[in-house]
Amino acid sequence: MKLGWKSPLKLENYDVLGLDISSSEVRLVQLRKAAKVYKVTAAAVAPVGAGDNSPDHTQANRTEAIRQCVRSSGVQTHLAVCGLSGAEVAVRHFSFPPMAPEEIEGAVLLEAGQVCPFNVGDSTTDYQLIPNGDDSVRGVLVAATKKLIKNRTELAEQAGLKCVLMDIEGLALLNCFNALNHRQNKDGQPCKTTAILNVGSSHATLAIMGSDGLPFVRDISYGGSDIIENIKTQNDIAADLVGETPADDNNPARSEPQPDDSLLRACRDLLNDVNETFRFYAARDKSAPIEEVYVCGDFAPSKKFVELLDSQLSARASLWNPFERLRWDRASQEEDILSRKGPALAVAAGLALRSI
Questions:
Q1: Treating both helix axes as pointing N-terminal to C-terminal, what angle do 303-312 and 268-285 enclose, rounded to 10 degrees?
Q2: Beta carbons within 8 Å of 353's beta carbon, 6+ residues apart
Q3: Domains parsed from the chain with CATH numbers
């Protein structure tokens, strides 16, 4: 799926950064392709500083985190691809009867006005057609509010970067997954319908690519911080004992206050939303049931969390670290980041593929 807001630059002629800006962290990845092999040339992660929740203060903290990523990675380019997700973003399918090419854009905008949960007049819309072997017009549209796009653009500019293209985080995940040939089995045949679940701090993104080539993306307003807060409330423990993420299963201070029943109760809303989405997707698209879900995001690297998803979801769940299929210098400064935080950088890697 090569869909994103158009850029006047031919990105394959430039080095571009994949810049994933979340509420808790900023993640940066740069890739390069040689002889059909993708190699990581830079990677960095920086936390977004805590403080008051005023918009100006949050913006300043995110800007500083971007600067930290740029400094620590040593990248020379100032061109970035940014991702969008959340309630101000929509990804929808469309199918029209045969029509003239010059009529398609107007039809897509009309469709967006009917299916998007926000005012399309205050948003930017893009689309991509997908051939289906007949005369009908089929494809996928994306829309995001101008306010959200402006916010990402200003964050990049304030940190000394230029945002040359916007992408949808769910589509970036699917692009990364497909580019690394996860969609084929060992015999080169297409895999069964699979899903990617990216669990971040403030929300989760569920992305599915069906056999018809149409992507399905849903953002769920429940993330790692909600799970942590729930566990803290259940066990009456301090937030710092639970930890910002459950990534370190060997740390007794973090793993001890997370018994299976507490984690199950804390994840119940997320589990219900994901299973409900799987049922909706299968019923609407009349597709084969989803059998595999790959879990990534900054809350994903906990063995307990992935095991819980595997036991409670209708599809088999496993941890996905895209950097297991990417080349990188094991003696570089990125080694610790990619080994420890690889699943959290999946979106950034997908964004970075726009430069390939």
A1: 50
A2: 18, 31, 38, 172, 175, 176, 179
A3: 187-321 (3.30.420.40)
Q: Please spell the DSSP secondary structure of 172-216, one letter per residue.
A: HHHHHHHHTTTTB-TTSPBPPPEEEEEE-SS-EEEEEE-TTS-EE
Sole residue written with tokens 């691809």: 81
Judge whether 304 and 227 are in contact, CB under 8 Å. Answer: no
Q: Phi and psi at residue 62, in whole multiples of 5°? A: -70, -40
d(CA 356, CA 353): 5
End-to-end C-alpha distance for the chain, whole angstroms:
14
Bridge partner residues of 92 (DSSP): 141
Amino acid identity for residue 277 in this structure: T
DSSP class of 281: H
User: Cα torsion at 125, 130, 132, 133 (round to 10°)?
Assistant: 120
CA distance 4 to 1: 9
Q: If 0-12 CB within 10 Å is exposed, 13-18 middle and 19+ buried, where does residue 312 land?
A: middle
Q: How far is CA 173 from CA 51, 162, 229, in A?
A: 30, 22, 27
Torsion of CA 264, 269, 274, 275, to 10 degrees: 70
Cα dihedral 114→115→116→119 (10° resolution): 10
Q: In whole angstroms, give the CA distance from residue 303 to residue 274.
A: 19
Q: What is the pLDDT along the chain (356 residues), one digit of tens a residue?
A: 444 444 444 555 678 999 999 988 999 999 988 777 888 999 999 999 876 566 677 889 999 999 999 999 999 999 999 999 999 999 999 999 999 999 999 999 999 999 999 999 999 999 999 887 778 899 999 999 999 999 999 999 999 999 999 999 999 999 999 988 665 544 555 567 889 999 999 999 999 987 777 889 999 999 999 999 999 888 876 544 444 444 444 433 334 334 578 999 999 999 999 999 999 988 876 667 788 999 999 989 888 999 999 999 999 999 999 998 888 776 567 788 888 899 999 999 999 998 65
